[in-house]
Write a structure and sequence with these properties.
Length: 170
């Protein structure tokens, strides 16, 4: 089968509009029609991945569709590995936090930095160093919980009102 430029663009455009198993089945049917060496030819001329084509060929031959488990991919959150972590962080940070001294926001400021929270989790709560997440992750968890590890600002006293003196009244 001869692949003209218009046929190539049609195949590529159709493959990009399809998703998942429909795309793989389309690729497999196209490659079967190309004949022997069709996988390599489709890879070279159409820019398709040969592994994807083979997966589609397997689906076409077996009749079973391979499910794409995108939700099962990637790294799990720290709370999945350590279910009590957020409660333990909250226990440590609650005693050291304070509201915005000027009451402009609802943020809670804490004197503890993320590395210090990590050290206290090891000392007070009995975690091992290897099982705890990095300080960057602990900072992200503190931010998600509404704590901001910054210096606690002191509230400024109001200025004293100027008492009138004899020289200022004249």
């Amino acid at each position: 089968m001869e692949l003209t430029d218009s046929l190539k663009s049609l195949f590529v455009e159709t493959a990009t509009t399809l998703k998942g198993s429909d795309r793989r089945l389309f690729m497999a049917r196209t490659v079967k029609n190309l004949g022997p060496g069709g996988q390599r030819r489709a890879e070279r001329e159409l820019g398709w991945n040969r592994i994807t084509i083979r997966k589609g060929m397997h689906e076409l031959d077996s009749g079973f569709i391979c499910l794409d488990a995108f939700s099962a991919r990637g790294r799990k959150r720290a709370e999945v590995h350590l279910p009590q972590l957020l409660d333990d962080i909250r226990d440590i940070v609650d005693g050291q936090s304070q509201n915005d001294p000027q009451f402009r926001s609802k943020r809670l400021y804490t004197r503890l930095s993320a590395p210090e929270v990590r050290r206290q989790l090891i000392a007070q709560k009995g975690y091992q160093d290897t099982q705890l997440p990095t300080p960057q992750t602990i900072t992200a968890k503190l931010n998600e919980m509404g704590y901001f590890p910054k210096k606690v600002a002191k509230s400024k006293p109001q200025k004293k009102f100027h008492k009138p003196t004899r020289s200022s009244t004249n």
